[in-house]
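User: My instructor asked us to take a sequence, write out its structure as tokens, and then describe one feature of it. I'm not sure where to start. Here is the sequence I was given:
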Amino acid sequence: MKVLMKASVAALAALWACAAVAQSPQGPAAESRMENLATLLDLSDAQKPQVQAILQGAHTQMRQLFEQTQAAGGKPDFQAMHAAHQQIRQDTLQKLSAVLSPTQLKKFQALEQMHAHGFAHHGPPPGAPPQ
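Assistant: Let's start with the prediction itself. The structure tokens for your sequence are:
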């Protein structure tokens, strides 16, 4: 049960982080995250707003799920949260597959996996010399 809870929280955090790349508050940080994703995935100008809209939609769904869970009070049902997360993730990937090339989709999934395993938050700071 503890492993399932950790996996659910990690999976929820992974999608939340990927969706946060294109979250709605506009500003330098949000624009920078979207531009970084656009560069990493080699998105065309036509793909950028489509990908951003898909990820914003996923982010909104995840935020609503989180808010509903908080509003319900008590202990969260991690199995239900995990199932809902998986469904949102699958829907997001399906929507992205209509916009991205197979190579771009594989890159997105690799980035998602890296983020889920914490690679996005570890290592030397940007611009630091390699060890």
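For the description part of your assignment, you could build on this observation: The chain has a mean pLDDT of 76. Try explaining in your own words what that tells you about the chain.
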